[in-house]
Specification:
32% of the residues lie in helices and 23% in strands. It is α/β, with parallel strands linked by helices. The protein has a single domain, classed as 3-Layer(aba) Sandwich (Rossmann fold). The protein has a 7-stranded mixed β-sheet, sandwiched between helices. Keywords: Methyltransferase, S-adenosyl-L-methionine, Transferase. InterPro entries: Methyltransf_25, SAM-dependent_MTases_sf.
Length: 210
């Protein structure tokens, strides 16, 4: 059982995948904007750019990106979350995969890692995940990650992964920082408890894998 599955089962229950999907459906039904991540990506590249939703969960972001005209692949380590994604959008490309050993066989213009996927990685796998995520990027492609940096912005029981640790892992994977924000609506990063990082990849790391 992964770190994510242990935390989800403890905090939500064994049917966490269904309840997670239902939560966002209810938010959307009452008029809340649940598409911040997709809107952010749309501000970086135009459709039909290739986007990998790495840690896609129940598919909320990938489905919205597909609706906007992007060529999307969704990958998640949790098969139960992908069952919800496939139920909502069976026509899309959903794959079970561990980000620390990821090889999609494709290159993308954007790799998106949202939903606190970074701090929910298995212990000791941040470096390998960074390398494999970078390897999915075409030359000039962008790695976009959003994650909490303190307990207030993380699920209960999830340890903090510091921004310094992430920056170091990304640099070792050949990624260079472009910018960072405090939220998906592009508020300037002020050192607070949530960050959205944007990094790009140099040509020299294009074919590197761990």
């Amino acid at each position: 059982m992964t770190r994510w599955q242990q935390i989800a089962r403890t905090s939500v229950g064994p049917d966490y995948a269904r309840r997670y999907a239902e939560r966002f459906r209810r938010l959307a039904e009452r008029g809340d904007d649940v598409h911040g991540e997709a809107t952010f990506v749309a501000g970086l590249v135009e459709p039909p750019a290739r986007v990998l939703d790495a840690g896609c969960g129940t598919g909320r972001v990938a489905i919205r990106l597909a609706e906007l005209g992007y060529d999307v692949v969704g990958v998640d380590v949790d098969a139960s979350m992908l069952l919800e994604a496939r139920d909502q959008a069976p026509e899309l490309d959903w794959r079970v995969g561990d980000l620390a050993a990821l090889d999609t066989g494709q290159l993308f213009d954007v790799v998106l890692v949202a939903g606190n996927t970074i701090p929910l990685l298995e212990p000791g796998t941040l470096g390998s995940a960074a390398t494999h995520l970078a390897a999915q990027l075409d030359e000039g492609g962008l790695l976009v990650c959003g994650f909490g940096l303190d307990e207030a912005h993380l699920p209960g029981g999830c340890p903090v992964t510091t921004l310094a640790e992430v920056d170091a892992a990304f640099a070792a994977a050949g990624l260079a920082p472009v910018t960072r924000y405090a939220s998906w609506d592009r508020a300037p990063y002020d050192g607070g408890g949530y960050v959205v990082t944007v990094d790009d990849r140099s040509a020299t790391t294009r074919d590197t894998r761990a």
